[in-house]
Input
Amino acid sequence: MSGMLPLRVTDPREVGGYGLIGRLGEGGQGVVFLAVSSAGARVAVKVLPETTDSQVRNRFLKEVAAAQRVARFCTAQVLDAGIFERRPFIVSEYVNGPSLVEVVERDGPRSDSALERIAVATLTALGAVHAVGMVHRDFKPGNVLLGPDGPVVIDFGMASVPGMTTTGLSGQAAVGTPAYMAPEQLAGRRVTAAADMWAWAVSMAFAGTGKLPFTGESLTAMAFAILHGEPSVGRLPEPLGGLVRRCLSKEPAVRPSARDALSELVAAGAQLMGPLPPQAAAPAVDDEPSSPSTAPPEAPAPPDTVEHARGSRGPVRWPWRAVALLASVLLAGGAGGLALILSRHGPSPQRPAGTHAVPSQKLTAETVARTQAITWILRQVSRAVVVSCDSDVCTELAQQGFPNLETLGPGSPDPLGSTLVVATAAIRAQFGSRLASVYAPAVIASFGSGNARIEIREIYSGGTHALRAALQADLQVRKISDTQILANSHVTVSAVARAQLLSGAIDPRLPTLIAAITAAYPVRIVDFGDQAPGGGPASLLRSMDLATHVGAAHLAAPAYVSWIQSLVKAQRAQFVPASSELVTLADGQTVLRIEFAAPSPLSP
Output
């Protein structure tokens, strides 16, 4: 939007009371004019393709209303909108500056602080867009303007109006610019904020290297590379490079949100260009279904669920595997995946008569452990996930409304048709050492002790050796991420906490929360611990003790603690800790203890 061309003979001279001065750009989405308001202010007026469809007009007005709620930080404010001679138009703040693509093509790739500012500003903008429930759908360097006050994102939310679609490989309308489209977007599937994060990663790779991570000699070849190839992002500075790679995961749910990605950059020392975007009340999603068969909003199907027949041995990737196996999608990522496998099997009838009685004390211990395990599953496991269990556990889960269950009886050859195994004493006895060494090596939660112990185990293709290799790689990435917390000038730590961070043993949800806190106030970490109930050997340190008074915060202890607790409660559901309370330590020191429950990749 840095240059202006004269108006054409066929162009109107006024649209909606705004006097047009010249053309700023033209494309498949319409024409952008430089205009003057009645108050004499310069504005950008975008005139979209003609439509007489009342549904399209209603959609347009809905998009405009949402766009006007987007915070102004790092975005071009939407000022007005309307219909001009059957053509929708939208009026936004005029940003006097070149686009990111113009600057890179003219001056070469951005680096150092310039690249960092672009990354921070664009994440701030996308976070603001997602916070009001919108999806940009066409984020790209051409929609990032480098104005006098810094980078500004434009055209958010307008990609769903007529004339702004590209046909995807499925034949459905796929909104966006192909080179920056996520695999699910290119395939014409339902689009969420995760597609914007893919486009952001492609844009940052282009900004930092001058090259796209996926290329091809034709649109078809490029689409194939996006759908099936591995990205080539070149040498980007860390932690930006790691974020870009994670955002280019084929699995939408593995990609960090704009807010989480921004928090990681801030934790590494980047400077905010506005307030940290608020958490969205619900995940931002394009509410236009991509096909008539899309599930209704009240019961949406998981976008990346894959259905396998019982007995299938092929690995299927599922997005949250990394958290359950010690590799957070927020800070670690990578290392292969498992499956969200839909099952048509229900629970078996109650155990037949003739079961031997057990001593009442043992029965009580088993009952307590079973109740705890069932409660954990109901609270933390997606209803799309298949859980295998014995008849008692499956029956209780079914009575509580859990749909996808695989009952393991004496004739069951293995539990491989499921994602999780509820390993009671009977299940452990049935499968013996194969359960831990071959089928389900990861214990992500455990309840009870002795023979009454019940473990929540996770199926992992390849068994123990493959799992150990994956976890070792994730550990190295997590160590790098945790050391970035130590480099944050707003964080001070005790000697114990420093050693814990350097070990890579911290649940990645904690550093993410620390980053969010330090965007506003400094923190002092006293210790990390593992007090939360249910965590198995495949769990990390899930609690932290924070000092209740930090002089540099310039707040009294009660106000400081209250602010942190308010921030904790404002997190998205899967990132809300199990508890946040004041605790007095043995040495008499009072700390704020924040604890997460046993990590689960399978939140409802």
Remarks:
- The chain is about 30% helix and 15% strand.
